[in-house]
Amino acid sequence: MSKNKQGILLVNLGTPDEPTAKAVSKYLKTFLSDSRVVDLPKFIWQPLLRGIILPIRSPKVAKLYASIWLDEGSPLYVYTKRQAQALAQKMPDIPVEFAFCYSNPTVKMAMDSLLDQGVNDILVLPLYPQYSCSTSAAVFDAVARSLQKRRAIPSLRFIRDYATFEPYIDALILSIKAHEMTHGRPEKLLFSLHGIPVRFAKQGDDYPIRCKATVDAVKKRLEEEDGWDPEIIQLTFQSKFGKEPWLTPATDASIESLAKNGVKHLQVICPGFTADCLETLEEISIGSKEIFEEHGGETFSYIPALNDSSEHINLLLELIKKNLSANT
């Protein structure tokens, strides 16, 4: 029997290769063609996507990407790569690869790399703390597809989510407290998580339950350790796409309402994003700030994602070690 050799695969959503309409169109086409994300019949959805949505949205979205692009590339790509590199340094005997569901490096590329290194026991870590069929399950699908033509497949372990993993909650609390030291305690702190259609939840996706579990865990700790009023903290959902009902309350509508009702100091954290990206750096840090100030708010700040901070790398390391040691 061959010797067991473990490997790690980190997977995030994806990002355009460059902030251009052509690159954004290519990325969105791949992303929005996944039935885990949009499950309309293909004969209806694909003509609409290719004929109307991509030509209209791609140039607009490309401009948004350009506003947040780093010298090294897309923030999501840059931070995910740094996370993988930092983990590899802490685990020199275990190969670590990173991949994206809808852009390069693909899950198949990363899986092939691990297998070429002789790995036969792979731990897959979707970089989504709260499970959803539209994210974590899509990673599972991509891993399965990557192995379809192989005669021999490795042992696989899959981290479904880590919404209440104590080191993750610790890292969020440290981030909030560090931000408070510089910006003060807000009148309201929104936990803005990416939304999903209400229909998904009704069909069994426990994503909203997992989101609430994260927020409740942080809220309890902040109240017990630092005397935070739990009423300050509110869960909202962002990035609605399409016309069907999505999870509420919506982040943008909540921010407008808070400002109109006299809240002057607002902070937002996005704990579902393990790396800053378009949805945090543009939609929240820029767009939500504009909404807040337009309707009477005065002080707005976004609490950055955990990115490649030492706290984040250490919690991922603990999560990996916990799952590698299980059932061995």
From TrEMBL:
This is Ferrochelatase. It is found in: Cytoplasm. Fe(2+) binds at residues 194, 279. It comes from Thorsellia kenyensis. The keyword Metal-binding applies. Pathway: Porphyrin-containing compound metabolism; protoheme biosynthesis; protoheme from protoporphyrin-IX: step 1/1. Its EC number is 4.98.1.1. Belongs to the ferrochelatase family. HAMAP family: Ferrochelatase. It comes from the Bacteria. Keywords: Cytoplasm, Heme biosynthesis, Iron, Lyase, Metal-binding, Porphyrin biosynthesis. PANTHER family: FERROCHELATASE, FERROCHELATASE, MITOCHONDRIAL. It catalyses: Fe-coproporphyrin III + 2 H(+) = coproporphyrin III + Fe(2+); heme b + 2 H(+) = protoporphyrin IX + Fe(2+). It holds the Pfam family Ferrochelatase. Its main location: cytoplasm. Catalyzes the ferrous insertion into protoporphyrin IX. InterPro entries: Ferrochelatase (IPR001015), Ferrochelatase_AS (IPR019772), Ferrochelatase_C (IPR033644), Ferrochelatase_N (IPR033659). CDD domains: Ferrochelatase_C, Ferrochelatase_N.
